[in-house]
Amino acid sequence: MTFYWPELVRQIRISGPVVADPTEVAAADFLARPIGSRQMALTRRQSQPFNDYSELDEALDRAGRELEIAPDQVPTEWMSYAVQPDEIEFWQGDPARRHKRVQYQLVNGVWSRNLLWP
Questions:
Q1: Could you tell me the pLDDT band of residue 112, with boundaries at 50, 70 and 90?
Q2: CA distances (Å), 53 to each of 35, 57, 59, in order?
Q3: 27 and 21 in contact (C-beta within 8 Å)?
């Protein structure tokens, strides 16, 4: 993952394996979302084609009724993911290209810190 803030001329890069979150973490993620987002997810039709907006409206109405009956329901197929970082780099840009780069690496459960050439 890379996060870049051009106004600050800063960047953070995080790398590592992506893993599925435990079911309870994914459920908490779903339940923390706005009601409209949960309704849309409960239609279970993301990226599928549809004929007209009345079809979408009907599906959202059905999902809304489902949520009224069971407000804490979470679709069984709902997943969330996390990066388990094993390397993180902080970068601060410099107009003269004397960028400051600090790298942290996880090796055998221990984080090391390195300064990197620009």
A1: very high
A2: 19, 6, 10
A3: no
